[in-house]
Amino acid sequence: MCPEVVTLVDDQAASAAAFEPVACVIEDVVATVEVVHPGLALAPIAGAVSYYGSEADVVQRVHEAVKEVTGGGAHVGVARGPFAARHAAQNATPDAPLLVDNDADFLALLDIEVVGHEDLAATFRWLGVATLGELARLPRAAIASRFGTVGLVAHQLASGEDRNIRPSHLEGPPIAEEKFEDPITHLEQVGFVARSMMATLKVVLASEGASPHAVDIEAEAADGTIRNRTWRSPHPFTADELTERIRWQLHAWVAKGGIPGGLVRLRVTPHEVSDRGRQLALGHDATQQDEAHRALLRTQAVVGVDGVVVARPQGGRDPAERVSWSRWGEQAQEPQRDPAAPWPGAIPRPAPALVPDPPPQLEVEWDEGTPVRIRLRSRWVPVLSWAGPWRKTGKWWEGDEPADRYQLVTSTGALLIATKQGRAYVLGIYD
Predict the structure, then answer these.
(1) Homologous superfamily of 176-298 in CATH?
(2) Which residue ranges make up each domain of the chain?
(3) Which of 97, 258, 369, 406 has the lowest tally of Cβ within 10 angstroms?
(4) What is the mean pLDDT of the chain?
(5) Which sign does the torsion angle of CA 4, 9, 14, 19 carry?
(6) DSSP assignment, residue 317?
(7) How far, CA to CA in Å, does 146 sit from each of 110, 142, 159?
(8) Residue of 248 and 256 predicted with greater confidence
(9) Nearest 5°: CA angle at 224, between 218 and 229?
(10) Cβ contacts of 193 within 8 Å, gap of 6 or more
């Protein structure tokens, strides 16, 4: 419908690398920077305010530093808590930072949808609760009883209490550290290192049913340079989420030349550990899951991070189009095409057992539009039965030519083929 539309895949590792210079210049003004995700950073400014004299001076310095790096402005918000500061930044403009004097008063005017749960916000709105202020005025015990933990967290956020973390009783912070005799220089190895360290750290945290809200990543380069960055999450990190943050950060440092000579030491320290651990189901076999996890880690170490992938369904007309691939252990991207859409012209079930990539060319002999036989290496095999054609019109504005798809059955097996410009290609092989 709109040939000019361009789809861009969300690459968090590349985004982290692009955001790293911004975090660095903020760190030059404010001692500590916590990255929530590429594009959003939190920074406690009490120390900087004491040094520079006022919040306005600190904000102005941060704004100028970011503008110098990006060529554009930054949306800056200042508040006591990170939830209020984030929404203050969203309501600010690049030329006018928003400084909040009272978190509760500021949050009270925000729409209920900012709680972050669409279904919960819709329920509150149906009950006549349209703003965070109206939610905060309701009894917390009643909200917790009716909506459970998610409702309790929403009420805490509406009241400006987003730093209310329940510390675990762990004796000292668990630390995962690895040293490398041969410096790591390839980004493929970064993902494996991160997964291995999280597998070690997970044993300590899982034994206490604990998860961290923040993690400090420290990397030492071969020339002695030490880099440090803190990542934060509003909810407790899972092991996979921690792995992603470590990989993103190392990717950012390596891509920007921040680890000269390669990585010789990596240290990960969780902070603000919460005792809101994962509750296992009655029949859950955690041992078997850990064994499978370690096996996939070993496989990934051999074949690389791109060699172990997970398939998920998505919409499409040909078999190859109906699968979305992502690296194992990483957060899956949303499917580019809706699998629930009707997709007229799609190949009917069953799906082929094997989908070659790229599709090899196949010699087919035709008789007045009817496939008669196909060539398999040095011999011709007669076509016993066939179905089709299913017409497919491609993206003509990108040079994608129309094609006809057929299902062919021979004495040696069944094939799914596509014909275009007088040539035939194998799209799938049926079992």
Answers:
(1) DNA polymerase, Y-family, little finger domain (3.30.1490.100)
(2) 12-158, 176-298, 361-430
(3) 369
(4) 79
(5) positive
(6) S
(7) 22, 6, 18
(8) 248
(9) 20
(10) 178, 184, 246, 250, 263, 266
* 241: phi then psi, degrees, rounded to nearest 5: -65, -40
- Cα separation of 200 and 297, whole Å? 12
- Give per-residue pLDDT as tens, 393-431: 877 777 778 888 999 999 888 999 899 888 999 999 998
CA distance linking residue 207 with residue 217, whole number of Å:
22
Residue-wise over 125-158: b if at least 16 C-beta within 10 A, else e?
A: eeeebebbbebbebebeebbeebeeebbbbbbbb
Dihedrals φ, ψ of 10, to 5°?
-70, 110
Task: In whole angstroms, give the CA distance from residue 70 to residue 78.
Answer: 21
Mean pLDDT computed over 95-122: 84
Q: At what angle do helices 239-255 and 12-29 cross, to 10 degrees?
A: 70
> Is the pLDDT confidence value at 277 over 80?
no
Dist. CA 186–CA 263, nearest whole Å: 9
Q: How many other CB atoms are found less than 10 A from the CB of residue 235?
A: 12
At residue 297, the pLDDT reads 65
CB 425 within 8 A of CB 362: yes
- The gap from C-alpha 201 to its chain's centroid, in whole angstroms, comes to 21
Q: Is the pLDDT of residue 345 over 60?
A: yes
- Place 321 in a pLDDT band, splitting at 50, 70 and 90: confident
Cα distances from 76 to residues 73, 282, 332, 373, in angstroms, run 9, 47, 30, 69
Quote the pLDDT of residue 274.
59
